[in-house]
Design brief:
This protein has 132 residues and is α+β, with helices and mostly antiparallel strands. It contains 3 helices and 5 strands.
């Protein structure tokens, strides 16, 4: 069944809802925000939209080089939104999927804090970042 690894992911992280049978994509609510999980090309991929405000993308991009050294989540831009994504093999065990979820959620929090610094604008932060 196509959605079985997606369902395994949801069970592994203890998510209370189930994906519809045969699903390869599901939207989670985590800490009041949406996170999408997909099973695609043998991978479990997590996505979280940070902003649809194009004017914030350059400021967010300035943080990306330093974050790439610290985390597995990747900042990307597409369809008029800046978003994070991170993946793992779809056949990963439950422990690896829980770790994927936890580290991705931590990354989402860090990036959200950058957006919240100045009421939605990515502002200066207190920790060191590598800028291009």
């Amino acid at each position: 069944m196509a959605g079985s690894r997606l369902e395994f992911f949801l069970k592994s992280i203890g998510y209370p809802d189930r994906a519809p049978e045969g699903s390869v994509s599901f939207t989670l609510r985590v800490d009041g925000r949406e996170m999408r999980v997909e099973e695609s090309a043998g991978r479990i991929v997590l996505y979280h939209v940070l902003t649809e405000d194009d004017s914030l993308v350059p400021a967010l991009a300035s943080y990306a080089p330093g974050r790439m050294l610290r985390e597995g989540a990747t900042l990307a831009y597409g369809k008029h939104s800046a978003f994070l994504w991170q993946d793992a093999p779809a056949d990963a065990d439950a422990r690896a999927l829980v770790r994927l979820f936890e580290t991705f959620a931590d990354s989402c929090d860090w990036w959200r804090e950058r957006l919240d610094v100045q009421g939605g604008g990515a502002g200066e932060i207190s920790e060191a970042v590598i800028r291009p």
